[in-house]
Fold:
Amino acid sequence: MTGTPILHDRLPFLAWMDPKLARLPGIQPLDMEDWLRIDEAYAAQMAERERLIATIPDKVHALLPQAEEAARELAAMIAERLPSFGFTRQGAAWRCPDGRLVSEAPDAPLLTLGRLVQEDLCILQPGPEGSHILTGAVLCFPASWTLAEKIGRNLIGIHNPVTEYDDTLARRVQRLFDAIHPERPLWRANALAYADPALYQPRREGETRQQGNGQGGYLRSERQCLLRLPRTGAVVFSIHTYQIARSLLSPEQNSAYIRRHHRAAG
Structure:
């Protein structure tokens, strides 16, 4: 990790202390007006996203042919929402809240979105065996997974080797994906300890991350939203990444995180 860590002032939720979020899969209804968020880390996160997209586009973006129409539908849906966040249209470009001018790239709608919003965006579509498959993504801030390894895989393959993702949870998640309606989106959250505050943290299966201990290191929490595109029927999995210095947690919050982590590890 080089440069200044990109951190938030606080976490908007404490997933490990909220009973509704702590029990896997921890799904809650989502108000679509609160789907996308622009927060205090917007400028810094977007600068990092611009750097990643410019230098390693093939590592942070993938789009299979069957997802191209869904990606265009998603881009149009987000474009409708941008003015409410302070974006202004300038011809074929958007002036962003941090002053950047982002030109639309019709041939790469997900890459355009990756330069506009803080959310990473994944597209999943039903596969030949019924399980949803990852068919497209702009993933600048992976939390210990690698896009090139997961693209084209179904939900079970995507979550390998997550210990908690057993057959029972896999069936529950697949039923959840099948039941999502465009008018009833969902969200959940997680929390993971890291020693390294870098937001781009890809890891291949079998590799482990170095975790911060006690009050040291950083706590990374993802706000994960699920919604179905009304026209193509694809499921969008969006990820808004929050990260704080772990020292900001109160002793009670930190102790609760340690207890939960130890239970999950055991």
About this structure: Residues 19-265 form one domain. The two ends are 30 Å apart (CA to CA).
